[in-house]
Amino acid sequence: MADRDGQIWYDGKLVPWREANTHVLTHSLHYGLAVFEGVRAYKTAIGTAIFRLKEHTDRLFNSAKIYMMDVPYTKEQLMEAQREVVRVNNLESCYLRPLAFYGSEKMGVSPIGAKVHVAIAAWPWGAYLGEDGLKNGIRVKTSSFARHHVNVTMARAKVATTYANSILANLEATKDGYDEGLLLDTDGFVAEGAGENIYIVREGKVYTPELTTALDGITWRSVQHICADLGIPVEKTRLTRDDIYIADEAFFTGTAAEVTPIRELDRRVIGSGTRGPVTEKIQTAFFDIVNGRNAKYHHWLTPVK
Ligand code: PMP
Questions:
Q1: How far is the CA of 193 from the centre of ligand 1 (A)?
Q2: Which cofactor is recorded for it (predicted)?
Q3: 120 to each of 28, 104, 134, 270, how far by Cα in Å?
Q4: CA of 293 to the centre of ligand 1 (A)
Q5: Structural domains in the chain?
């Protein structure tokens, strides 16, 4: 990743990609506290535009607040910086990664005295769980590791720390030949994927876990608007892994994963074993919105020019 052409916004300046470096004694590298976002820009009918830029930027600042990290920029500055990064790299569709972290000014658990740095990179990134996954669904394995309890790393924050737990789940699943891991909470109820929220469909109704140990996903929220438009009822409730086994359909949502059908969990085929009709409807509506084909949702798109 470090060896590419392009520019990265780093502490207020555009820096050549290969020179956007940090010292090995960076506090966040040792103690794991960095807050970040995953954002996408799409080539849309109204030009290249960032999907739900404000919501992602708000969440970045909320993550920082939860961890008492003072971001030395305003939301407006970082929204403009995200637009600039897409523009200067001449990207039509891309993924953006804003990151706020503590620098190398000091060691020791307390970050007080370390400077908060902000970097924003953008690069083309296709379907996170594969084009075939988007069309035909992916195979998922329930992790033997639990999602953090709400009083461990705090799920409202999108913080690097949480992703050590996600990596355990993802590696366990992928090394066993699955595409992604599903995490249960410490009480055994369904939380979320390693990097995605989850929905199931049963008898025409959509269910998703209440927001307890899962990230407050921006795609997750967007899907609820889509379901309202499509007249599909949504219920937030506790789900168990066997609720998913016997669902008619299941799918993951996320900025990277977009709307990805799940065709199998723990070797139980879900529904017909491919993308189901309700998932397909929601997925189609989602791609219409992000690609600017639905004027009702143009306010979710911020053009970069
Ligand atoms: N849960 C986790 C753990 C994630 O990493 C992500 C991706 N950011 C999501 C859910 C989905 O969130 P969003 O739709 O905001 O990308």
A1: 9
A2: pyridoxal 5'-phosphate
A3: 16, 19, 27, 38
A4: 24
A5: 7-123 (3.30.470.10), 131-290 (3.20.10.10)
Q: Judge whether 283 and 259 are in contact, CB under 8 Å.
A: yes
Choosing from 158, 281, 296, 305, the catalytic residue is 158
The answer for residues whose C-beta is within 8 angstroms of residue 261's C-beta and 6 or more apart is 133, 134, 136, 137, 138, 249, 250, 251, 274, 275, 276, 279, 280, 283
Q: Give the bridge partners for 8, in sequence order.
A: 15
Residue 295 is classified by DSSP as G
Q: Residue whose CA is closest, atom 11 of ligand 1?
A: 254
Q: Are 85 and 105 in contact (CB under 8 A)?
A: no
Cα(144)–Cα(84) distance, rounded to whole angstroms?
Answer: 42
| C-beta 255 within 6 A of ligand 1 | yes
Nearest residue (CA) to ligand 1, atom 9: 196
Structure confidence by residue, pLDDT tens digits, 158-186: 999 999 999 999 999 999 999 999 999 99
Q: Which residues pair with 192 in a beta bridge?
A: 183
Residue 45 has pLDDT above 90, yes or no: no
| C-alpha 73, offset from chain centre | 22
Q: What share of the chain is helix, strand, coil (3-state, %, to 5)?
A: 30, 30, 40
The letter for the amino acid at 36 is F
Distance 151 CA to ligand 1 centre (A): 19
143 lines ligand 1 (CB under 6 A): no
**CA dist., res. 192 & res. 187, Å (int):** 14
Q: What is the CA radius of gyration of the chain?
A: 19
pLDDT tens readout for residues 208-250 = 999 999 999 999 999 999 999 999 999 999 999 999 999 999 9
- Model pTM above 0.80: yes
Question: For this structure, is 43 an active site residue?
Answer: no
ipTM: 0.99
